[in-house]
């Protein structure tokens, strides 16, 4: 049985998918890009601000599912320029305890939705 997780504190999906799906104790969060859910506008021009907005969107979805970043077991970061890795990593890392951080991969891609610079998805377990 799956339960759809939705919050107005994260951007609405821009395609035929949901913000997150909870099945059993496992939450699968769709990739979040730097859209401000209050305005619907993209955060652009500063990779740290873009990463922070993506992480805040993920945080809102985790909160709606009654979880925190401590529940995250796997993250996937997609970037369009691996040269920005250290700046993205700095912001991303501030949301986790280094000793209990999740497994992760970071992948450089040609393009992302709305041509953003970063997209992050997560899997969390209660």
TrEMBL record:
GO terms for molecular function: deaminase activity. SUPFAM superfamilies: YjgF-like (SSF55298). GO terms for cellular component: cytosol. CDD domains: YjgF_YER057c_UK114_family. InterPro entries: RidA (IPR006056), RutC-like_sf (IPR035959), YjgF/YER057c/UK114 (IPR006175). Belongs to the RutC family. It comes from Cellulophaga lytica (strain ATCC 23178 / DSM 7489 / JCM 8516 / NBRC 14961 / NCIMB 1423 / VKM B-1433 / Cy l20). NCBIfam families: Rid family detoxifying hydrolase. This is Endoribonuclease L-PSP.
